[in-house]
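User: Sorry, what's this?
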Amino acid sequence: MNITNTRLQVMWNRLLAVVEEQGQALIRAAFSPIVRECGDISAGIFDLQGRMLAQAVTGTPGHINTMAEAVKTLRGRFVVQDMKPGDIYMTNDPWIASGHLNDFLLMMPVFFKGHVVGFTSCTSHLVDLGGLGMGPEGADIYDEGLLIPPCKLMDAGVLNALLMEIVKANSREPIANEGDIYALIACCETGAARVAGMMDEFGIDHLDDLATYIIDTSYRGTIEAIADLPNGTWHNVLKVDGYEHEIELHAALTIADDRIALDFNGTSGLSNKGINVPLNYATAYSVFALRCIIGPDIPNNAGSLAPFRVDGPKDCILNAQPHAPVAMRHTLGQMTPDLVYGCLSQVLPDLVPAEGASCMYDLPLRHTPEAVSQGGTQFALELVFSGGTGARPGLDGLSATAFPSGVWGSQVETTEAVAPILITRRELKQDSGGPGRMRGGLGQHIEVQSSQDEDFMLFLSVERVLNPARGRGGGSAGACGRIRIGHDGPDLPGKGEVRVKAGETLVFETPGGGGFGAPRERERDDVLRDLEDGLISPEAARDIYGVKP
């Protein structure tokens, strides 16, 4: 490597440090637990053309990969020559930003020596934007809250105070929303300041050479990884729970010498409820899944994303058009990796994991309609819990781990500190991981009740209640999720509005991941270890794995 490339590599490493500091600034300053505790964010640095150069490791693919395209859109919407230091642009348009109204995306131009040299951007989840709130009950986007088209949030460093007041006036959590927006601003400002500082330190006046080096190197590496795969088209169908009825997700994966295309043709049409998915969000998770297998060591940026194309018929449920309801788009959007892996497993059977819980068990809770008028506690809270991931060809699945979202699970102490909620039980669910030579990850058993003499509302939109995560290569399915009021209550559907009365216990169990390989091939020592750790029962050890306790 010559000296020029050495300097470029050092600057690339500096960018990675910058975006991590940028992401941590957002997390540290945020008010909402889903951001502060769960890391439901993205942060990135972009060149003058709006191409993503680097992204923070902390963050979700649904935020990161949609951000990669959103900045290009905003870059084209506003004239660079009109931009001033301290300007910040914002939108929560689901078809530009991250797929639903609760995600705010900011973009800030980076100035150096009086000129725009690039952009910083970030996304995070605001807990409440009015309307019917976080839940699947909306009939269109207008039911789901406040939509803000691309606009200026900051003008030469001066906050758009009217816009902030509008956001606060349309929320059940105005203080949290205001704090989270300031955290997003801090994230952008941190990134811009550090990029400008890096340029001064290294004595460069623009990012063009560095951008070309990063994007071209990543693109070539991704093309080389694709070239190692056989050409052809592979198909898969994934049956999911849906809302009004069960839904089929279809995929055709086509591998060529220098590109990969994914098509959702045949996928079921739109739902009348808010589980529809804009294509930008479905693309984000589909491409993330492919990149986990194909060139996973190559950094995620505009170069490594370029060879992938995703499409689907307009108004199939994975390509919802405006103004469809999309509040809970993650419910099906996070199922797309399992859909994609069903295709890719036919090409790379020794690399692709079994299906997992996939859709995170995102549980929005809120005060009842009459609570405030009767002197009760007003709150809006979004809990995040995870099931088990699918077993891998050479390793067990991970228990209570969010894949593909990557968000961290809600913490008991934080939850109880910010809302009148008491979590009385939280543990791994025995025998929930799909049996196999490699066992699927376990789901969780969680019990929640009100900490006061007040009812609360739950807005369910989860998957894998009817259709479990399937095993691969002879592995068995994981356990389904399950939700009920009280231990003896009837099972509730995975989607809908539920009132939990004071004194009642909400019991929910997250799904387990599928197993990989035949259960009888599992090593005896591994079975005994699982038994000793309480992950499987003596009956499962004996009847499924053939090992006597």
Q: What stands out?
A: The chain has a mean pLDDT of 96. The first strand starts at residue 41 and ends at 47. DSSP finds 13 helices and 19 strands in the chain.
